[in-house]
Amino acid sequence: MGTLAQKITVETTVNAPIAKVWEQFNAPEHITKWCFASDDWHAPFAENDVRTGGKFKTTMAAKDGSFSFDFGGVYSNVIPENLIEYGMEDGRTVQVTFTDNGDSTTVTEIFDAEQTNPAEMQKSGWQAILDNFKKHVEANQEK
Fold first, then answer.
1. What is the DSSP letter of 78?
2. Residue 82 CB partners (closer than 8 Å, separation 6+)
3. What is the pLDDT of residue 3?
């Protein structure tokens, strides 16, 4: 093993109760509506078995069909409405915490940086996806 990966943190506060935030973060029919960083991308496929030992996979693709990739991994620790930890296929780890603030929920993701792209670029990409998630949940309040 080389040096320990740099940890990057992204965070957002969603104006919705924790049960709704948890559900829309994890339900495949919601993941396909928010799990991309910009409007010229989409997530045509998602599967998610959100439990310790469960697996997940989301396909992220450019809408013009020029590029797509699968983002997936295995959950090492899941505490409903509280914590998700998982390992990605490249060995990096991610920790997602959900903080119940009553009528809002703070979602914090801490992930290992990869070596290919600058940390700032990775942070802004993950933050964009998290911001998209916030927008999605807040637009789906009445459901």
1. E
2. 97, 98
3. 59
Q: What is residue 23's three-state secondary structure?
A: helix
Measured CA to CA, the distance from residue 130 to residue 10 in angstroms comes to 8
Q: How far apart are CA 75 and CA 84, in angstroms?
A: 7
Position 6: which residue type? Q
pTM for the predicted model, two decimal places = 0.94
How high is the pLDDT of residue 141?
76
Could you report the per-residue pLDDT of 57-116, keeping only the tens digit for each?
A: 999 999 999 999 999 999 999 999 999 999 998 999 999 999 999 999 999 999 999 989
The DSSP call for residue 134 is H
37 burial via Cβ count (<10 Å: 0-12, 13-18, 19+):
middle
Which domains, and CATH codes, for the chain? 7-139 (3.30.530.20)
Distance between CA atoms of residues 32 and 25, nearest Å = 10
What are the φ and ψ backbone dihedral angles of 106, each rounded to 5 degrees? Answer: -95, 130
CB hemisphere CA count around 7 (13 angstroms):
8
